[in-house]
Amino acid sequence: MDPIRNPYAPGAGQRPPELAGRDDQLRAFDVVLERVAHGRPERSLVLTGLRGVGKTVLLNALRSAAVRKQWGTGKLEARPDQGLRRPLSSALHQAVRELGHPQSEDVDHVLGVIRSFAQREAGSAAKLADRWSPGIDVPAVRGRADSGDIEIDLVELLSELGGLAADLGKGVAIFIDEMQDLGPDDISALCAACHEISQSGLPVIVVGAGLPHLPAVLSASKSYSERLFRYQRIDRLARDAADRALSAPAESEEAAYDEEALAAMYAATGGYPYFIQAYGKVVWDLAPRSPITAEDVAVAAPEAEGELAVGFFGSRYERATPGEREYLRAMADAAVAIAERGDEQLDDIQSVPTADVAAALDKKPQSLSPARDALLKKGLIYSGERGRIAFTVPHFGRYLREHA
């Protein structure tokens, strides 16, 4: 097959040629946009799922839907080592520009509030070089969003922004990727601001994406967060959607898969969107002709698995210290032991009790707390419920057993 015409795109956050299996989320978000723009109450949205299921791709698709409705949008990626003020200020600056409000005085006022919010992080005694502003050339507005209390400031900031959007009958959507990496104070402030904005009826929503334990992070911050957000779990694709993700791009290039090949691809990828793109790219390059067969998939599988082992799994494994790698391998072994004993049914994410991991290492659970906590902070594992842990990456246990 001609590699130049290869339609598959196995990139981090890169939109695949066919966004299969996400029609329900896109339609529901269109309803949210219309309701908010018409002053109807609506909750903000949180997408959760393992890595490789397409959360970032869907987040970008939802943002594109908001842009088509002429909303103001801004996006940021949370990082554990960075506060919320600076990246949020840049995102909101972009949202104001997209709104295109005709009254320059009103726009300048809101931009001044954004600048005030951003500069408050450094403090009034900071050097000029540290008094950062997100490319805004209007003076900061004193007395708005600059109290130093992130919760108060964020409510004031989003209220100003919501008022600007309401003047135009539009809305503002803030998209936050890796939302679980926000600090506790920032998470709390964001929840409080969403609560206040919702009560005020202003057209501002937050769309967050993160790992499966994000709802627990939000709930620990504010008890009312379970009613504040609409949670949508983004999972692997069903068989028909996975087939479409492969077949539609191939058909655009006048190629096809036979039924046995599609079945083999689903068995190999488990329906995870990133794996579908990774396998699709390698199978296309190695297949001699169309239609692609199950034999072609079998021939390409070792190379596809090798690329995933280096780029998808290996890069994450390398971030762990030797002690942390030992803990990861023990998690994989514990899952196998549970399956072999048959006294407990492994769930979809193959979570395991922390006590079983300790038993696999023949150590006391308390002695493993530093390794477990470090892996949690690195985003390699997560805890969906007390006393159990799971990998944030699908098929990671299999990779560890075969390669580590």
UniProtKB/TrEMBL annotation:
* Xref: InterPro entries: AAA_16, Cyt_c-like_dom, P-loop_NTPase
Protein name per UniProt: ATP-binding protein
Show the segment(s) annotated as Disordered.
Answer: 1-21
The GO terms this record gives for MF are: ATP binding; electron transfer activity; heme binding; metal ion binding
A Pfam family reported for this protein in Swiss-Prot or TrEMBL: AAA_16
| Lineage top rank: taxon | Bacteria
Q: Which UniProt keywords apply?
A: ATP-binding, Heme, Iron, Metal-binding, Nucleotide-binding
Give all residue intervals belonging to the Cytochrome c domain: 166-317
